[in-house]
Structure formats: structure tokens, C-alpha cells
Amino acid sequence: MPAISSVAFAALASGALVATVVDIRVRRIPNALTATMAGVGVGFAASGVSGVSLGASVGGLILGFALMMPGHALGATGAGDVKLMAAVGAIVGPALVVSAFLFTAVAGGVLALAVAVRRQRLAATLAGTGRLISAPGEAKKEIQGATGSSRFAYGPAIAIGSVLAALIG
Fold it and tell me: For residue 14, how far is the Cα from the chain centroid?
């Protein structure tokens, strides 16, 4: 059973689904979607229907943003991904947004491997990952030098991680 109300879970799941479809199709997550999700999260909290307090909703929004910002600063995620995780935080609050972030990281890794296999780039992907691990100071250069063939939409990973966090905590 979700730690948030069924109404809040429905908003989260539907917003995550739309973000996934749009991100896969056009490789961006619209501001209108993330702003709406964040507004719904804060509104539900303010009205007492989400199971999350207003303070927790705002805290979740800020924490979701903060958790994704380093990846964006390195060039590994887009601004829409950052705003989507912030919107998720507004719906689920700070404790669950940390879980959502961790589940998202795992889902992103699994999706990255699946995309690499599909594109027949598994060896190159693993080699690039090895370089990131062995020389973390070079991470920004390695990430920014990545070709389009090694990038993929991260919205689906955020959707999977967020829904799993809401379902199992």
C-alpha cells in the first residue's frame, strides 16, 4: 500500500506516465507537466488529501531538485529530469523522494544496459563506465564527450523509481 493517498499516487503515476511517453518521443520533459505535477503535489498537501503535510511537500520539492542537480551540472541529466524529480518530491515528500531517487538510479542503470545491448554498444558502455569509476575527476569531460548514441531518455527511469518508491517505500 502506498505511503501516500491513492489520489496522490494516481497523480504521481499519471504524471510519470506522461513524462515517460513525452521524453521517449521528443527527448524532453515539458515545464508545463512538471509545474502541474508540483502544483498538484503542493495543492494536495495543502488540502490534506495526499497524506503529506504542506511542509513535507515543499521540502520534498526542494530535496528532489537538490538530489538531481549534481547530475545535471555534470551533463548527465537534463533540466527536465531535475524538475521532474522535484515535482515527484512535491507529491511524495522528502523521505519518499530519497527512495525514489535511489530506485531511479537502479532503474537508470538497468535501462542503460538494456539500451546499450539494443544499440550493440554494451562493450563501449561498460568501458565508459569503467573510466568514470577509475577517474572520477574526469567525469564531467567523459559525460559531456558522450555521443548521441550513448544517451537515452531518463524520464522512464524516474517514473519507474518514483512509482516503486511510492508503492514500497
Answer: 14
The three cell numbers locating residue 55: 511542509
- How many whole angstroms separate alpha carbon 125 and alpha carbon 32? 33
**Amino acid letter, residue 8:** A
Taking alpha carbons only, the member of 92, 99, 81 closest to residue 157 is 81
Q: Alpha-carbon distance 102 to 100, whole Å?
A: 5
Classify residue 34 as exposed, middle or buried by CB count within 10 Å of its CB (0-12, 13-18, 19+).
buried
Backbone angles phi, psi at 29, to 5 degrees: -115, 115
Q: Per-residue pLDDT averaged across 41-52, rounded?
A: 96
70 within 8 A of 78, measured Cβ to Cβ: no
- Between CA 84 and CA 51 the distance in angstroms is 20
d(CA 158, CA 71): 13
Q: Which amino acid is at 23?
A: D
Q: What is the pTM of this model?
A: 0.83
Tens digits of per-residue pLDDT, 132-155? 566 655 555 555 555 555 567 889
Residue 155 near residue 5, CB atoms below 8 Å: no
Q: How far apart are CA 161 and CA 67, in angstroms?
A: 14
